[in-house]
């Protein structure tokens, strides 16, 4: 009799726990964010968790995070979660290096939460505005900045390449080195094409200057000889003038000499 009562009590207690657990998750106000709607957190106040299904710490935090989300309306804060396996670009945009990572966001200002991971700590962090004591993420690391957008694209590209690599190995049975060879060839071809396109664009924007025509050696010598002839022609008049001057001087000297040699005739 006592055993049957114990079994009945255990069944009722388990049933009540299941009902309470289900009601807790049914009241969950957890918001799922991804690559498409992550910008919603730029307005208002948010608590955002970055998690992954394979992360043990994330699995342990999940019930507490779900419970914390049920207080979101009372606290005036939106509680959200991002799965980095489906949104790898966001992990790069926010520079997530450990899981789980929690950010507090208010009117586009980001602060990383590093306190205790329990409901009371989360609630006091929001209610008492303890986030005001934490420095905001610097502007160069702001998730909506241009440089972080570029980083997010690289993260998405790496995730896509990893997916292709796994597909080649699992579905097509290629060895690891075979996949690497394919990636190497594709990288070389794409690099060559991009280099060719860049060269064509540069030549189009900045066309090369046409060099001025150069004279051949024969023409250069001819011009040089012409200059010498011209110079010699210019020198000729000077030489002729000098010769004429010397001739006139000789005539004057000869006349003066002949005059001195003449003697006056005596009168008869």
TrEMBL record:
Keyword entries, A-Z: Disulfide bond, Electron transport, Endoplasmic reticulum, Membrane, Redox-active center, Signal, Transmembrane, Transmembrane helix, Transport
Acidic residues: compositionally biased ranges: 232-253
Membrane topology note: Single-pass membrane protein
Disordered as annotated region, ranges: 216-268
Keyword Signal: yes
Domain called Thioredoxin: residue spans: 1-131
PROSITE patterns: THIOREDOXIN_2
PANTHER family, alphabetized: DUMPY: SHORTER THAN WILD-TYPE (PTHR46107), THIOREDOXIN DOMAIN-CONTAINING PROTEIN (PTHR46107:SF3)
Name of the protein described by the UniProt record: Thioredoxin domain-containing protein
Organism: Apolygus lucorum
Classification of source organism: Eukaryota, Metazoa, Ecdysozoa, Arthropoda, Hexapoda
């Amino acid at each position: 009799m006592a055993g049957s009562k114990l079994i009945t009590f255990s069944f009722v207690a388990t049933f009540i726990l299941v009902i309470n657990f289900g009601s807790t998750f049914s009241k969950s106000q957890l918001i799922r964010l991804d690559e498409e709607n992550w910008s919603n957190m730029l307005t208002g106040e948010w608590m955002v968790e970055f998690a992954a299904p394979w992360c043990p710490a994330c699995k342990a935090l999940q019930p507490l995070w779900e419970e914390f989300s049920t207080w979101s309306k009372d606290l005036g804060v939106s509680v959200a979660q991002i799965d980095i396996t489906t949104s790898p670009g966001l992990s790069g945009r926010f520079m997530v290096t450990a899981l789980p990572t929690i950010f507090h966001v208010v009117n586009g200002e980001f602060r990383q939460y590093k306190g205790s991971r329990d409901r009371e700590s989360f609630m006091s962090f929001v209610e008492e505005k303890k986030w005001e004591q934490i420095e905001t993420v610097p502007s160069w690391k702001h998730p909506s900045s241009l440089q972080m957008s570029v980083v997010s694209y690289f993260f998405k590209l790496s995730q896509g390449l990893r997916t292709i690599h796994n597909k080649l190995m699992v579905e097509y049975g290629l060895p690891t080195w075979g996949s690497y060879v394919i990636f190497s060839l594709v990288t070389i071809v794409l690099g060559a094409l991009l280099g060719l396109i860049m060269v064509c664009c540069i030549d189009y924007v900045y066309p090369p200057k046409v060099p001025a025509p150069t004279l051949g050696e024969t023409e250069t010598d001819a011009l040089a000889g012409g200059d010498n002839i011209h110079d010699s022609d210019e020198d000729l008049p000077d030489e002729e003038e000098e010769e004429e001057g010397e001739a006139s001087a000789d005539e004057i000297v000869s006349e003066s000499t002949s005059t001195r040699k003449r003697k006056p005739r005596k009168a008869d």
